[in-house]
Amino acid sequence: MMRKLERPKGRYAIFGDIHSNLPALEAVVADARARGCDRFACVGDIVGYNAHPCECVDLVRSLNAVTVKGNHDEYCAGDVDLEGFHPLAADVAAWTRRQLRPEQIEYLRSLPLEAQVDGFTIVHATLDTPAKWGYVFDRFEAEQSFVYQKTTVCFFGHTHVPLAFEKTSEVRFGLYNRIQIALGRRYFINVGSVGQPRDGDPRAAYVTYDLETGVVELHRLEYDIEAAQRAILEAGLPERLAQRLALGR
Ligand code: ZN
To answer: Which of 31, 87, 118, 151 has the fewest CB atoms below 10 angstroms from its CB?
Structure first.
């Protein structure tokens, strides 16, 4: 009998842009576990915008998730001057800094900009200039990142819009639900946002990646948006941040 080609086993849940939204993160973790995910990877932006920064940092760490740094993790934990920022983001970053415990700030500061995980890569923004936090919305921007991609698959975040880019001799892209990874190609896949989706669909987003079958699936989940909104208002954060959760914008 022919021996089957050995592929690594395991199922990952890959998620990011949580932005301190605990009800959304809890829904994602519960769904991922129910789908048999035993490993986790996080593409960054654990904090910012919503009202549960400490709880979200603790939960991500409790999953032993391989995690990369997002721009909001840097703003909220670093010594970056917040002047010149969008006022909404600057206010929340200043508030978040006051909530985080010193060891949580240390943790966020220690995160790498990109990481290799079981044969795939994760990064928050782009692989070509990860510290510049560029946005990948079209194939020209994806093309720049592909130059530096050494693995077949790379997952990313930052735009809060789940688009997938596939490179053969050219780059094609679009929205997706399910992707069968094929060898000889490259994939740059945005996992959407757990805590502040911006594609018009307010449901939390994350992906599962089955290493054995090579299947990537996008999942969208209802969660308790009202609880997240109440927490924002109770914390005295801008009302606009609560409103946008219901719109997915
Ligand atoms: Zn983000």
So the answer is: 87
Ligand 1 mean position, distance from CA 155 (Å): 14
Is residue 205 in some structural domain? yes
pLDDT of residue 85: 75
* pLDDT at residue 242 in the model: 96
Per-residue pLDDT for 2 more than 90? no
What the block records as the tokens of 36 is 């048999």
Distance 194 CA to ligand 1 centre (A): 9
Q: Is residue 249 part of a domain?
A: no
Amino acid at residue number 77:
A
Q: Tell me the backbone φ, ψ of residue 245, rounded to 5 degrees.
A: -60, -35
Distance from Cα 125 to the centre of ligand 1, integer Å: 9
Compute the distance from residue 144 Cα to the ligand 1 centre, in Å. Answer: 20
Query: Which 3 state secondary structure label does DSSP give 156?
Result: strand
* Domain hosting residue 61, numbered range: 11-244
Residue 101 within any structural domain of the chain: yes
